[in-house]
Amino acid sequence: MKVGIIQQACTADVEANKQRLAQNIAQVAAQGAQLVVLQELHNSLYFCQVESVDNFDLAEPVPGPSCEFYGLLARRHGVVLVTSLFERRAPGLYHNTAVVFDADGSIAGKYRKMHIPDDPAYYEKFYFTPGDLGFRPIKTSVGLLGVQVCWDQWYPEGARLMALAGADLLIYPTAIGYESSDTPEEQERQREAWTTVQRGHAVANGLPVVTVNRVGHEPDPSGQTRGIRFWGSSFVCGPQGEMLYRAPKDEEANVVIDIDLHRSEQVRRWWPFLRDRRIEEFKGLCQRFIN
């Protein structure tokens, strides 16, 4: 499978962001991409740096205007497209939702972000209700896509459940960056930990992983911090965690990467982790903490 990833810097102009994405989708499609993955909340700036009720105006229904826009692009270019939208489900009820479009432009399915962070500059609990669709792969014309969103990528349980439900690959639209007061050494440790944990999901489940992050600096509207410098570094790795591509940490990137989905079958024969799981001993995973 040829996978196109689009690592892009965003501005406050939603329509300009969407038009640039449209150009970049066309570019990777022209290079043969069959599946195209966008970053988290790509229509706008990462608004969760502050808690403001005015930002709820960015949300829209699914399906809605953005679904029409991206569905048309998927159909025009004949690609499966993974998007990340701010979903308005009902008045006062919002989700951080990945919407997947099949190559005919139809909505193949959606995933609502399950793990919602609440950290300085990442005040997502103010905006998003935790997802209620479970960890179910989305069936598309290119395979079963195990789509999750950003903070979900740190949790091995979600990756495992997607694998157990038959996912052909794991996909993570992302928005993560540096805290400006951290030392360069600490910043690099965080970026490498982020990469390593997801490569671990690939190894533990025998599946490729596709992660697409934002890039560039976005200021803090409140002025209380120096904003977030998103660390880019979008990557694709194979089912043994082997790095197939890693984008720069400070530049935009539109790239098409070949993934051999047949390797997953062979890797799982070599390393039969699913066979040897002691599922009868895993009840403790359903507890918050074991005293």
Q: Secondary-structure map with pairings?
A:
Blueprint (H helix, E strand, L loop, with lengths): L1 E6 L6 H17 L4 E3 L27 H13 L2 E11 L2 E9 L5 E6 L5 E2 L2 E2 L14 E3 L2 E5 L8 H9 L4 E5 L3 E3 L4 H22 L3 E4 L2 E4 L9 E4 L3 E3 L5 E4 L6 E6 L3 H9 L2 H4 L15
Parallel strand pairs: 1-2, 2-3, 9-10, 10-12
Antiparallel strand pairs: 1-17, 3-4, 4-5, 6-7, 8-9, 11-14, 12-15, 13-14, 15-16
Helix pairs in contact: 3-4
Structure notes:
This protein has 291 residues and is an alpha+beta fold. The protein has one domain (2-286): 4-Layer Sandwich (Nitrilase/N-carbamoyl-D-aminoacid amidohydrolase), CATH 3.60.110. It has helices at 14-30, 65-77, 156-164, 184-205, 262-270, 273-276; strands at 2-7, 35-37, 80-90, 93-101, 107-112, 118-119, 122-123, 138-140, 143-147, 169-173, 177-179, 209-212, 215-218, 228-231, 235-237, 243-246, 253-258. It has a six-stranded mixed sheet. A six-stranded mixed sheet has the order 8-9-10-12-15-16, with helices on one face. Strands 11-14-13 form a three-stranded antiparallel sheet. The longest helix is centred in the C-terminal third of the chain and has 22 residues, at 184-205. The mean pLDDT is 97.
Taking all Cα atoms into account, the compactness measure Rg is 18 Å
Q: Sheet with the most strands?
A: 6 strands, mixed
N-to-C SSE string, H for helix and E for strand: EHEHEEEEEEEHEEHEEEEEEHH
Strand runs, count: 17
Based on the coordinates given, report the CATH architecture: 4-Layer Sandwich
CATH class: Alpha Beta
* Share of residues in strands: 25-35%
- Output mean pLDDT: 97
Which bin fits the share of residues in helices? 25-40%
Biggest sheet strand order reads 5-4-3-2-1-17
In the predicted model, the low-confidence regions spanning at least 5 consecutive residues are: none
CATH topology, by name, is: Nitrilase/N-carbamoyl-D-aminoacid amidohydrolase
CATH H-level superfamily title? Carbon-nitrogen hydrolase
Rounded to the nearest angstrom, the distance between the terminal CA atoms is 46 Å
Number of domains: 1
Categorize the overall geometry.
globular
The number of helical runs is 6
Going by helix content, strand content and strand pairing, the class is: alpha+beta
